């Protein structure tokens, strides 16, 4: 229990703290260092699992494959604005591999794919947003696995959460602080994008959860993960 608290502290306290400090203190000038800090903090919970019997190279390879598929999916659907399978892949990773792996999948998908789409002060926010969605999926895994309707609702809400967190970055980018009126205006103007996020998550989760989920389950059983 104590180790779980330490893991969650890194992911839901230190990571967002690093992201906010990067904006407030460094004024977006050191986003590369902030992204590096977020990446390192994301890996700490994984390092703490190395003493467990179910943490081995096979599981790390699966994680790498899930990240690669997520990055590839973002690239392949780049011609459709905001309609990407990234969140679905992150959610599936969190459900079948655990919240630590879900967070890493989300954070590293943002970091790696932005070498294609462009790194910037938005990268740490994307890392945290997708990572948080993977974490929540891992924590709610038992519920999400039992009911496809609840899973799809979660996917839609994950789209809203991602848009909400990126609106936080947009507000900081405009004003250097969390101006509430600007934040509300950003949320309102981003409604079409938020809806697209939500719909894409529902579509991709509905299509991918069974084929990828079954494969991950078979691998877990085969290798005793």
Automatic annotation (TrEMBL):
<keyword id="KW-0812">Transmembrane</keyword>
<keyword id="KW-0472">Membrane</keyword>
<feature type="transmembrane region" description="Helical">
    <location>
        <begin position="60"/>
        <end position="77"/>
    </location>
</feature>
<feature type="transmembrane region" description="Helical">
    <location>
        <begin position="148"/>
        <end position="172"/>
    </location>
</feature>
<protein>
    <submittedName>
        <fullName>ECF transporter S component</fullName>
    </submittedName>
</protein>
<feature type="transmembrane region" description="Helical">
    <location>
        <begin position="184"/>
        <end position="209"/>
    </location>
</feature>
<feature type="transmembrane region" description="Helical">
    <location>
        <begin position="31"/>
        <end position="48"/>
    </location>
</feature>
<dbReference type="InterPro" id="IPR009825">
    <property type="entry name" value="ECF_substrate-spec-like"/>
</dbReference>
<feature type="transmembrane region" description="Helical">
    <location>
        <begin position="6"/>
        <end position="26"/>
    </location>
</feature>
<dbReference type="Pfam" id="PF07155">
    <property type="entry name" value="ECF-ribofla_trS"/>
</dbReference>
<feature type="transmembrane region" description="Helical">
    <location>
        <begin position="98"/>
        <end position="117"/>
    </location>
</feature>
<keyword id="KW-1133">Transmembrane helix</keyword>
<dbReference type="GO" id="GO:0016020">
    <property type="term" value="C:membrane"/>
</dbReference>
<feature type="transmembrane region" description="Helical">
    <location>
        <begin position="123"/>
        <end position="141"/>
    </location>
</feature>
């Amino acid at each position: 229990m104590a180790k779980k608290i330490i893991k969650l502290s890194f992911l839901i306290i230190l990571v967002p703290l690093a992201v906010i400090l990067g904006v407030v203190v460094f004024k977006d000038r050191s986003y590369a260092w902030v992204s590096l800090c977020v990446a390192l903090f994301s890996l700490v919970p994984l390092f703490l699992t190395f003493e467990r019997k179910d943490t081995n190279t096979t599981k790390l390879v699966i994680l790498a494959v899930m990240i690669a598929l997520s990055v590839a999916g973002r690239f392949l659907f780049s011609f459709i604005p905001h309609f990407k399978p990234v969140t679905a892949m992150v959610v599936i990773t969190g459900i079948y591999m655990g919240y630590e792996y879900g967070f890493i999948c989300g954070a590293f998908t943002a970091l790696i794919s932005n070498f294609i789409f462009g790194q910037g002060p938005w990268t740490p926010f994307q890392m945290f947003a997708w990572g948080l969605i993977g974490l929540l999926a891992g924590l709610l895994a038992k519920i999400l696995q039992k009911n496809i309707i609840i899973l799809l609702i979660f996917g839609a809400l994950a789209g809203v959460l991602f848009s909400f967190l990126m609106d936080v970055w947009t507000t900081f980018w405009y004003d250097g602080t969390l101006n509430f009126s600007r934040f509300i205006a950003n949320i309102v103007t981003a409604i079409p994008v938020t809806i697209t996020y939500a719909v894409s998550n529902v579509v991709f989760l509905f299509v991918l959860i069974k084929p990828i989920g079954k494969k991950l389950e078979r691998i877990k059983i085969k290798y005793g993960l």
